[in-house]
Design brief:
The complex is a heterodimer of chains A (255) and B (359). Chain A is 38% helix and 24% strand. With 255 residues, chain A is of the alpha/beta class. In chain A, strands 6-7-8-3-9-10 form a six-stranded mixed β-sheet, sandwiched between helices. In chain A, strands 2-1-4-5 form a four-stranded antiparallel β-sheet, covered by helices on one side. Chain A is globular and about 65 Å long. In chain B, strands 1-2 form a two-stranded antiparallel sheet. Chain B has a two-stranded antiparallel sheet with strand order 3-6. A two-stranded antiparallel ribbon of chain B has the order 4-5. The longest helix of chain B has 27 residues, at 240-266. The N and C termini of chain B lie far apart (51 Å). The chains are: A alpha/beta (255), B mainly alpha (359).
């Protein structure tokens, strides 16, 4: 197995709070790896560090064998790492299709001058962007929402459109920040199905999730964070039996 | 591409010609002067519309860029270089064909920059200033960006007002005509009124086409995404800092070109062109035009500038634009001419749907 993402001794604090403390882990190619932990465990901070929205105080992040820590989010995205957000962040006043089309940004190259002059090759590129975006929306079963304003859609639909936008980047690694948050049971099951379908496309997935059943069902490996530190990193069955994990989630037995 | 996008352009061309014919047959050709000036101001406004409406970055300092363009061009085409003619640099510029010799009002010879050379230098200088200012300033958001650009506008205003070779409070005058091609010149001569109206309008039409293309492209999509959710745009691979800076510079170039040409048309430029109230006026017109609406900005740019230049607002000129800004921000922060307005009007004039579900 080859490592796609290698996180080593990653730390980040906010004032006096050590949000992430010397966390190390690897994500193997074509795996689904989950990141769980109680509220405030540092899961989202870890995601923001990996995607470049925050810079680490110390430690390193290697993506596909090259260091990405300290790079800007757009640079990391262009290396093949896409993400979704805990609170869906679609672009308002743009249709669902336009949102997904923005995901093709790193795979297209029309600049200011060629766009203003509307050079013929930019039309072809624009057409290719549109077709690929529709294809991805079709794959996720939301192509009928293409013309609707993205932020006017139902929350569950917004989540899938956001997923389509991330997939349009054709990422090697997809970071999903609580993809089932705010979804009902049927939608959660659909999301689980979509995530396994995405893995079948050859995309590696790192997922932060609160929904235990979803995580246990679909992940190959699970990392457990508590107060910014990694307390376990194993296959789902072993995690379920891990005493420290149980203590973290359920409290001490011998009270 | 979509022919629908260019259909309104045909309408615009027809309107431009229609207005000229109207002034011709009603014997009010003198109005073309104000229409020409309005066209140049509209050029500033459509450039600002892209920056504010699409990319979501405010600038209350665009009169500064207009003035930089105008003043540099005016200075270079009027400042007499004859006393320095033996200097190596001047000889070099002269040999390169960038300088011209003319006679001043009193018949004595003067040597100054050729308008084309001055125009290009003015625009290049504006680009440099815009990059220099935009780099740090565009890291700010919302009110802070507004204040910083306002500060820039004030600096330009006080600079031209306090610099003697920019004519201080009098500004610069006797700016020569700008010969674009042989037979086509930007100047305020009454004989060239129709010609200049078409030059200015043609420039606006070209500007509208370029900006519409930009809006409907990959870049336009990226700019709108920055407006909507900047961090998400970055996470999708958009170099947000670079795009914001580029669109800021582009809108500054639109302002500078308008500044250069209007200065040649008027034969001079004064410090009022750099004043904060001019910047506020541009922002107010973009706001009433519907923010992210090039056509709305264009129509309002022509209309309100024309009314203002014809003196319809009297001594309340600045107050009118201040009031427009306040009213728009209070009652229609999305701008007056936006898509919602038309559907709202349609709803108002269509019959209410019949109630269903009653037997």
């Amino acid at each position: 197995m080859t490592e796609l993402l290698e996180v080593k001794d990653l730390s980040r604090s906010f004032g006096g709070l050590q949000a992430v403390n010397k966390v190390s882990f690897n994500v193997q190619k074509n795996n689904i790896k989950a990141l769980i932990g109680p509220n405030g465990a540092g899961k989202t901070t870890l995601f923001n560090l990996i995607s470049g929205m925050l810079s680490p105080d110390s430690g390193s992040i290697m993506f596909d064998g090259r260091p990405v820590h300290g790079l800007q989010p757009y640079q990391i995205a262009s290396k093949g790492l896409a993400r979704t957000f805990q609170h869906v962040k679609l672009f308002p006043k743009m249709t669902a299709l336009e949102n997904v089309m923005l995901g093709r940004h790193t795979h297209s190259r029309a600049g200011f001058i060629s766009s203003m002059l509307s050079l013929p090759w930019t039309w072809k590129e624009e057409k290719a962007i549109r077709e690929k975006s529709l294809e991805i929306m079709d794959f996720l079963g939301v192509s009928e929402l293409a013309g609707s304003e993205a932020t006017s859609l139902a929350y569950g639909q917004q989540r899938i459109v956001e997923l389509a936008r991330a997939l349009a980047c054709e990422p090697a690694l997809l970071l999903l920040d609580e993809p089932a948050a705010g979804l009902n049971m049927r939608e959660t099951a659909e999301m689980a199905h979509l995530i396994t379908k995405i893995r079948e496309m050859g995309i590696t997935v790192l997922i932060v999730e609160h929904d235990m059943s979803l995580v246990m069902d679909i992940s190959d490996e699970i990392i457990v964070l508590s107060y910014g530190e990694k307390i376990a990193d194993d296959v789902p069955l072993a995690i379920q039996k891990n005493r420290e994990v149980i203590r973290t989630y359920l409290g001490e037995e011998d009270a | 591409m979509k022919p629908g996008r260019y259909l309104p352009i045909a309408g615009l061309i027809a309107a431009v010609i229609g207005v000229q014919l109207l002034t011709y047959y009603t014997g009010s050709a003198y109005m073309l002067t104000q229409l020409t000036m309005s066209a140049y101001y509209s050029l500033v406004i459509i450039g600002l519309c892209i920056l504010i409406g699409y990319a979501g970055q405010i600038s209350i300092g665009h009169a500064g860029f207009f003035a930089i363009g105008g003043y540099i061009s005016a200075f270079l085409t009027t400042y007499d270089l004859l006393p320095y003619k033996s200097h190596g640099l001047i000889t070099f510029l002269s040999n390169a064909g960038l300088l011209v010799r003319t006679e001043d009002l009193y018949g004595s010879q003067v040597l100054h920059f050729q308008p084309w050379a001055a125009c290009i230098m003015a625009v290049l200088f504006t680009i440099i200033v815009a990059y220099f200012i935009g780099g740090p300033v565009l890291k700010l958001k919302g009110h802070y960006l507004a204040m910083a650009t306002l500060g820039f506008g004030i600096i330009v205003y006080r600079t031209v007002l306090g610099t003697s070779f920019f004519g201080a409070a009098d500004g610069l005058s006797d700016v020569p005509p700008f010969v674009l091609f042989s037979g086509l010149e930007v100047s305020g001569k009454a004989s060239g009124r129709v010609q200049n109206y078409y030059i200015a309008s043609g420039l606006v039409i070209a500007g509208v086409i370029l900006l519409l293309n930009l809006v409907h492209s990959r870049i336009g999509r990226a700019l709108r995404s920055i407006h909507g959710a900047e961090d998400a745009a970055g996470a999708m691979g958009v170099n947000t800092a670079k795009y914001k800076l580029n669109i800021f510079v582009l809108s500054a170039v639109f302002a500078a070109i308008a500044g250069v040409l209007l200065t040649h048309y008027n034969g001079g430029i004064g410090p009022s062109e750099a004043s904060v109230m001019k910047s506020v006026r541009y922002v107010a017109i973009v706001a009433i035009g519907g923010m992210a609406n090039i056509w709305g900005s264009l129509i309002m740019g022509f209309l309100l500038n024309f009314l203002s230049l014809r003196g319809y607002f009297g001594s309340f000129d600045d107050a009118v634009f201040g009031a427009i800004l306040i009213i728009i921000m209070l009652f229609a922060p999305e701008g007056l001419l936006h898509k919602g307005l038309f559907s709202g009007l349609k709803r108002l004039f269509s019959r209410p749907p019949k109630e269903e579900g009653q037997t």
